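Lab meeting prep.
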Amino acid sequence: MAFDPASGALKCPYCGSKEAVPQDDTARPVQENPLDDYLHAGPERLAQLSQSAVQVTCGSCGATTTFEPTEVAGFCAFCGGKIVAQPTAADPLIAPEAVLPFRLPKKQAVGQIKGWLGSRWFAPNALKDMARQESIQGVYLPFWTYDSRTVSGYTGQRGEHYYETEFYTEQDDQGNTVQRSRQVQRTRWWPAQGQVARDFDDITISASKSVEAVNLHELAPWDLENLAPYAPAYLSGFKAQRYQVELGDGFESARGIMAGVIEGDVRSDIGGDEQIIDHIQTRHYEVTFKHILLPIWIAAYRFNEKVYQVVVNARTGEVQGERPYSVWKIVGLVLLVLGILALIYFWQASGNRMPARGSQ
């Protein structure tokens, strides 16, 4: 049986019977894990996605995907290359804490991609034909989420505006020299120092390098409030990518996002009309994380020896992707516009040469 996005249950592809996704009564609810306990995780902290899971690595792009038999490797979801390596038992990893199950059925995802390609005016016709024949794959992408409490001390300067009257001379419309005045903005600067605190929740970092970051960013938002405790049954009929960004590296990216928010807090705390920040020292504590899996439909296709991807948020139907441009279509449009402009020019020119009615 495979997981059915439309019903949220396991469904037999032959007779259509359904069963609820089995849940482990001993499994813990979705919760945060202490970051320090896993940064240098030993074997006792690692686990397989399931006892029967296998994995395969694409020889072209290097992406490693995990799936449940009887699913087969076939073609790489990320580059469209044929998988020639034999599946092996899945390596242990920091197991997912939660999963956001597929909700958009494959048929609807195919329609979304066709609509997206159909709206690309300069996409080559061959690409559209190829996309209709290319099957898309459902893949769970790995993400890290981080929570952190922070306290930040800072030093800087607060700028307060004031205005002075400035006199100047200029010539008026009659050429006379006249004296005028204007208000000029000045700034007084005062030293500032203090401390701000902020708690961060679910800073989400992609752990995949196989999908363009800008496309993943545009797929958001994700309804993380509907995360379900991870169960291997959710993978039935789908694949899951192994994380390519390690836990510690992901936290460094999250720290950068937090730093931008903290800078805004510091500027607000300094106040005034302008602020100069000389130094911020932030301490992170009670840092926790989750490894979660988020669902996408993905179509990878090759055109003129280059790989392009179209991805669909399997919760909302949002489509993002890349496509080539048809040089001939662009040239044709330019020629058409030039032809229309030429016709307008000759029509106007011929109208100007016609003699006025009644002239000799």
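Slide two material, second protein:
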Amino acid sequence: MSIKKGIDIKLNVRPIYIGLVHLSAFEGPCRFGQGEELTTEYDKMTNQELYKEFVTDVKKNLSIKEVNLMDPIYIERYDDLLSKEAMFEKMAENINEVDLYLIGLEIARGDIAVEFAQRYKKPIAIVPENCCMIGDCIPAMRCRDLEAYGYMAWEDGIRHMKVLRVRKVLKNTNVLLAPRMNSNNSMASDATFISLDTVTRSLGPRFRYINVHELLDQMHMVDPTTNYTIPKRTANNIDEQDMKEIETLTDELMKNAIECNMERNKLLKSVQAFYTVKKLLDVYDCNAFSMPCPDVCASTRLDTEQITFCLTHSLLNELGIPSACEYDIGSLISMQVLLNFSGGSAYMGNTNPIMYENGEAQPRRVVSEEHLKNIKKEENLYFTFHSTPNRKLKGFDKPAESYGIQPFAFSGFGATLRYDFSKDYGQTITMMRFAPDCKKMFVAKGTIKGGGGFSEQNCTLSVIFQVENQKDFFNKQINFGNHIPLVYGDYTKELVMLGEALGLEVITA
């Protein structure tokens, strides 16, 4: 399979250095030197040395996994100060591949950078730690409504390039949706995006659709022309080779779980659902997925098939393919953002405040007295619960975390992975979600204090965390949604910068 994951996308950065060569020897307010320093040959030599220093500096600082550093370009202006077409043509080589131009220059060359930005409307940055030209070129571009950036230090530029990469990821996100009753939202996600067309126009993701019954029919290893929903068409049903891989994955999941409370044949059905979705993601050229839990549950197909899609979401997320419960597309796109900043998978769920009585945290829904016994005096507690964690929360390049397997249904079907969040006491998490109207972003930070539901069935797996101010968090959250996805680590600065890059209002808690 060749799913083009967002985590594999890089920001293509083209370095350009603009030199200035004098054709005759003279001194004045913009040129200094003595003897041979005023010759054309000396100028050319000096510019080549400056260009080499520029390239060395850029490579030293931008040798990071998020950036694809394109071949640098050197252009030369003469002191007649003409703006030759050949200069712009050279700067624009393979321009369609470039995401950001990083320009090194000094006095009497800023007009070239400004005109280049005007001509091609591509994002421009002046190399960090540049004397004078950042303050000269950037306002000249921005006041012409051109996208331009200036960085005081390299660390600022690197952080911002990571932000621009995530913006590019959003523009290269194709979401596979499997609706039943409504293609915009499910019966459990009223706070998702109001308009998916607005999402495409504002953020960039595109949406593809498959009828959920067609999806379910293709889980079966039958003649692919005999599916009930699309008779006579050749579908993408599970085949014998697929079944071998499904059997292997099922056995690996059971073998490596520290606790497994499912029969193999029932676990296998959920693995089949995962494999079918992954296969269809490849067919539809998509790299994100969601389907509506309650809508499909009401059709009784899930009970008939003896599956839920919890395991599908978990296994896709740990592959770096965002997958969200309950057709919550607002949460899904937020997860794409979060996992691409953190380099680890996201966890989404119902997010609610812990209530207090006489200064002590009280049990609520899936949070029991046992889960709170060591943290009852902790203030400003919140919890998130669902049953779609995974083994790569701390990084896609890290070893898989320990896990358990429990059924979702009390009758034993619908595999769910279980993760013990309580072992991560003290870990920082970052939360984020887009507003339903796609005009705002909610960004918050917390600290893990506990968790529960590892050995339980159903939608009971919880992570308990502490926020700075519970009431402030709640009053802001209710403008965004029930599901507030989270990742490990602090990415609040990057998220605020992304909101600005997307033209959204950022609300922090």
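Talking points for slide two:
The chain has a mean pLDDT of 97.
Residues 40-61 form the longest helix (22 residues).
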